[in-house]
Every structure is written in C-alpha cells, then in structure tokens.
Design a protein that fits this description.
By secondary structure, this protein is of the alpha/beta class. The chain folds into 3 domains: 169 residues, FAD/NAD(P)-binding domain (3-Layer(bba) Sandwich), CATH 3.50.50.60; 108 residues, FAD/NAD(P)-binding domain (3-Layer(bba) Sandwich), CATH 3.50.50.60; 84 residues, 2-Layer Sandwich (Enolase-like, domain 1), CATH 3.30.390.30. The chain has 9 helices and 26 strands. Strands 3-2-1-7-19 form a 5-stranded parallel β-sheet. It has a 5-stranded parallel β-sheet with strand order 9-16-10-11-12. Strands 22-23-26-25-24 form a 5-stranded antiparallel β-sheet, with helices on both faces. The longest helix has 15 residues. Bound molecules: flavin-adenine dinucleotide. Flavin-adenine dinucleotide binds next to helix 1, strand 2, helix 4, helix 7 and strand 22.
C-alpha cells in the first residue's frame, strides 16, 4: 500500500455491519470505489458461534459470513490486518497505523466494540481472558488444556454459552452473576428459574448476587471474602464501542457514536453502524441491529435514501442444549397482559406479552418454533383487535392469531 486510493467510500472495520454496508452500497452504485479496513487478519465471521466452540478447533474460514470471492465480485478492496488510526475531517482522509492515508468521499464506521473488563486488582495474573475474536477463542482453549478449574465472570448470553462449552470439557466451571437471577432483561422470573436449574444440572456451579473483588493466582475473591477457584478466568462483563477513530474526527459521542435515521453521524459524510453506533439512546450490541444499520448506512453513503427503523432487542441462544428466544418487553406489569403456556416436565415455557391489543414481547424457552413470527409481530407492532385476556384464552390461540395476521 502507499498511494491514496480515493475518493471513494472507506469502511472502517469488517464485521456484519460492514458486510451489509457493502451490500447497501452496491445496491445503489456498482462503480464507486470501496475500501474496507479490517484490523483483524480475517474476513468477517460470525462471532456468536465463538462461545460454542471453546475447546474446539476454530477457524475464521469455517465461521466466515462471506467468502473472499464475494468481496471481489462486489469490487471491494479489503485490507486485512490494517487498522484505521484517525479521520482528518478537513482533508477528508483516513490515516492508517502503517502511516498510509486514504481519501474518502464518505466513511462508514463499522468498527464494533471491545470487551469491557471491570478494573479489579490482580488482573495482571496469568490466564485472564475475554472473548471477542477467533484469536481469543484459541487462546482460551489452549489455556484450558492444562487447567482443571475455570471461572466465568458474567452470566449474560455469552457467559452462559461459554460456561456450557467449557463444562462439556470436564472442567470444573464456576459462573458468577451480579444479579439475583439469570438474564433478567430477557427473561421473566419463571424462565430465569428454569434456566438456573438447567445450568446447575449441567454441573456448573452458579453463584448469583456475586460481586467480584480481586483476582489471585488460583481464582477470584468475592466481596465478602469467598474465594472461587479459577485457574482460567473468563470475563464476560459486557462490551464498549470502539471510539478512538470516531473521537479523532470530533464526532458527537454519548455511549456510542450518535447517528440519525440515515445512520449519519454529526459529520454528515461520516456514517456509523452496528456495535459502535448509538441510535435514539441505544447501542445495539447484537447482530440484527448491526445487519440492519449496516445496510442503511451503505445505501445512504452511496447516495440512496433509506431510513433505519429500530429493531426491537431480540436474542436467540442455545444454553446447555436448551433453545431460548426473547424479544421486546417480556416482564409482567400492571399495564400488560401476559399469556403463558408452560410444561415444567419437559421444560417448555412460552409467553406472549400484550400492551392493549399490541404484541410487545415474547419468550420461547425449550421450543422456539414460531420465533420468527413473534419477532416480526413485535417489530411491526402488530395489532390484534380484541386480543384481551378474556377473548384470547390461551397461548396457542394468540399465536394462531399472529400467524394468520
Ligand atoms: C462470543 C460472542 C457471542 C455473541 N453472540 C451473539 C448472539 O448470540 N446474538 C447476537 O445477536 N449477537 C451476538 N454477539 C454480538 C455480535 O457478534 C455483535 O453485535 C456484532 O458482531 C457487531 O457487529 P459489528 O459489525 O458492529 O462489529 P464487530 O463484529 O465487532 O466487527 C468490527 C470489526 O472492526 C474491527 N476494527 C475495530 N477498530 C478498527 C480500526 N480502527 N480499523 C480497522 N478495523 C477495526 C474489529 O477488529 C472488528 O473485526 C456475540 C458476540 C460475541 C463476541
């Protein structure tokens, strides 16, 4: 590399937001030069599968979202292992950490997020990890080859999936959770309780209301003094948007880079999408948001006109062999009607939540059939006239109404 390539569209980062941005750009303009900078030496891959694969061979190729040929067919120049350092807004250039520079008519920030690790004492001991990349997964697996105990800090979806993958390797796994129940935003009390039973029956030692205080060579100490074994410590305590490049451009930033419906930042020729972006006060952090925002950013950066419609938070995961789906608002409350179908023996729990006639949320636990329809109903704010508790006696009838709709 050396000379400037522009002007064209420069995409910073290569994850799902960037892939969909490229798709969006080419839906409008087949000629505009596109350059994609990927800090990692890999083409975009599915991160969600990393947690399932701990302890197994992981290759970026087997997880790839698109093959290298796909980028070639779309005439995109992909620079693997190249990191954007800063954007010069006056000169409309993106500088790289290798000293070279790209001119840009537009920039799409698709640089994602990085794991957040709480500032505890003792973090400098060996075998302390978080999981974001293929390289992280390989390092964790390798450390676990000689370890007998692992402590996973944080029982969000990623922490749960990682704990399960490690428990299958005959490791003694401890799972620490700040909250008093599991997945408190995605599940209601009943589903959280069922999930805790499943976790414990998989041999994982679950510690709820556990506040980590300090790491020591063989484990982690909780506030209150209890010592939890962990030759390997895996932090799964959330992510923070990667803001160095956006900051260099002086963009408006709150928790993420603030964007409007067109995915434009406070500098209109710079767009942002995915984990790095903040739309109407919320930072995505999940694949469906990265996919939808990336597409909109690409279309608009290439001269089109498309508005992003916020995707309600939804999650599908496989924990301890049990499938789980959650979308929208799932908690009980005075203003909502909850319709529940439960079979404790086979650990199947299904719930739909209505606000008036509108489907606003759902949980599927153990059997996620119908999840696409429920997600769509919540996304589209489907109204089901007469769908009050009195007229809809059970879950099956309500689901039937959604499906027919
Ligand atoms: C283990 C794991 C499990 C997950 N499970 C789920 C799940 O089940 N469901 C779900 O919806 N979501 C899940 N997620 C979240 C999902 O993967 C992210 O929301 C999604 O990857 C965000 O896409 P993105 O394109 O915004 O950013 P990313 O996928 O983070 O990609 C951004 C890329 O940009 C690169 N980059 C950063 N800075 C620069 C720079 N300056 N120059 C060049 N490149 C740069 C990064 O290295 C990275 O490769 C999971 C994530 C992880 C890590």
């Amino acid at each position: 590399m050396g000379a400037s390539l522009g002007p064209g569209i420069v995409i910073v980062g290569l994850g799902p937001a960037a892939v969909n941005a490229l798709e969006g750009i080419r839906s409008q303009d087949v000629d505009v030069p596109v350059t994609i900078l990927s800090q990692e030496p890999y083409y975009a891959y599915y991160r969600p599968r990393l947690s399932h694969l701990l302890g197994e061979e992981v290759s970026s190729e087997s997880l790839a979202i698109k093959k290298p040929q796909w980028y070639e067919e779309r005439n995109a120049q992909v620079l693997l292992g190249q990191t954007a350092k800063a954007i010069d807004v006056d000169r409309k250039t993106v500088s790289l950490d290798n000293g070279s520079e790209l001119s840009a008519s537009s920039v799409i920030l698709a640089c994602g997020s990085s794991p957040f690790v709480p500032p505890l004492s003792g973090l400098d001991r060996e075998n302390v990890f978080s999981l974001r990349t293929v390289d992280d997964a390989r390092a964790i697996s390798s450390a676990c080859e000689t370890a007998k105990t692992v402590c996973v800090v944080g029982a969000g979806p990623l922490g749960l999936e990682a704990a399960w993958a490690l428990a299958k390797r005959d490791l003694e796994v401890h799972l620490l959770e700040h909250g008093s129940r599991l997945l408190s935003k995605m599940l209601d009390q009943n589903a959280s309780r069922m999930l805790a039973e499943i976790v414990e029956s998989a041999g994982i030692v679950l510690h709820l209301s556990a506040f980590s205080e300090a790491l020591f060579p063989g484990g982690i100490r909780l506030a209150g003094g209890e010592e939890i074994p962990g030759e390997v410590i895996l932090f799964s305590t959330g992510v923070r948007p990667n803001l160095d490049v956006p900051r260099s451009a002086g963009l408006k930033i709150n928790r993420g880079v603030e964007v409007d419906k067109l995915m434009r930042t406070s500098t209109p020729w710079i767009y942002a999408a995915g984990d790095v972006a903040e739309f109407e006060g919320s930072v995505g952090g999940i694949m469906p948001v990265a996919v939808a925002q990336g597409k909109v950013a690409g279309v608009n950066a290439a001269g089109g006109q498309e508005e992003y419609v916020a995707v309600p938070p939804s999650y599908t995961l496989m924990v301890m062999g049990t499938r789980l789906f959650s979308v929208g608002d799932v908690q009980d409350g005075p203003d909502v009607t909850s319709i529940v179908d439960v079979d404790y023996d086979s650990r199947v729990y299904r719930k739909l939540v209505l606000l008036g006639d509108k489907v606003v949320g759902g949980i599927l636990f153990g059997d996620i059939a119908g999840s696409d329809k429920i997600r769509r109903a919540v996304e589209e704010g489907v109204q089901l006239p007469g769908a009050a508790k009195e007229s809809v006696p059970d879950y099956a009838s309500l689901l039937d109404m959604i499906v027919r709709d």
